[in-house]
Amino acid sequence: MGEFFAAIVSPNVPFIRYALIAGILAAPAFGVVGSYVVVNRISYLAGAIAHSVLAGIGLSLFLRSRFGPSWFTPFWGAFAAAMVSALLVALATKSGRQRADSAISIVWALGTAIGVIFLTRTSGFVDPMAYLFGNILLLSAADLVGIVVLDIVVLAVALLFYPQLFALSFDQEFAEVRGMPTQAHLTILLLLTGATVVLLVSTVGIVLVITLLTLPAATAGFFARSLKRLMIVASILSAFFAVAGIGVSYAYDLPSGAGIVLFTVTGYIVAFVITKITAKNVGRRPTNEKTESRSLSI
How confident is the model over 112-140, as pLDDT tens digits? Predict the structure, then answer.
């Protein structure tokens, strides 16, 4: 790990600093939106949006190779595809559960298929593995600007609509009775999820998006008892998992996305085991006055 810390301050390897900055900057969006996704149990919807962004990435690379619009990078192609697919998924949820499941599956499969077709028709060498499994070490300074802008927008919208999204998350029926447009707020949540997915694609890739979107929030759920605290803890865990995964991937020459996900899954398992052991010990503890006074003194 000494080489990793030396690389951080070295002017010859700026991509390491870019990767660390990207992981830390994007962590609040992962924690906030991931908490909403976990509480609302819409990880399947997030998975459909995540896989559909391959269509935008493939279209961007195809157009750049044929017509040369340098501004239409894969980052913004993924963003456009995520927004379109989020709207399609939101429309699908209006048509009942059975039809919604079919429509969401179509968005999932069609986006992936279109992306693969565009990638195969793109002239020059294109490594699909970097987009499927992520390579945060390939980020540039321009990508960091896009991450900062998207991060600010996601957090601003999430905090602006916090009361409405809170009601949607915990008592949707009561919110509907009160006249709240829950479908509109669900659409906002899906758009936020799509924007966060774009941030995640550059970090861990399309295939591993759901892990980093849901597991930090699920891990934080073992220790947090309110939505705000869940978001804070999930954001901190996301930043830690990203930095740790990048460090290990650099030190041992491993794929960065897989390294980050490995740390994320390990963190969840450790938190789960600790919670179970703690709950078991508490359940065995006698409840006489002597024991209670001893625990209070500790």
Answer: 899 989 988 887 767 677 777 666 656 77
Q: So where are the chain's domains?
A: 14-297
> 22-39: per-residue pLDDT in tens?
888 888 988 999 999 999
**14-297 maps to CATH 3.40.30.10:** no
Taking residue 152's Cβ as centre, other Cβ atoms within 10 Å add up to 13
Alpha-carbon distance values, 108 to 41, 82, 137, 263 (Å): 17, 11, 27, 27
Query: Which residues neighbour 72 within 8 Å (Cβ) at sequence distance 6 or greater?
Result: 60, 63, 64
Q: Round to whole Å and give the CA distance between 152 and 170.
A: 25
Let me know if 74 is exposed, middle or buried by CB neighbors in 10 A (0-12, 13-18, 19+).
buried
Tokens 């694609």 -> residue: 201
Q: How far apart are CA 57 and CA 75, in angstroms?
A: 7
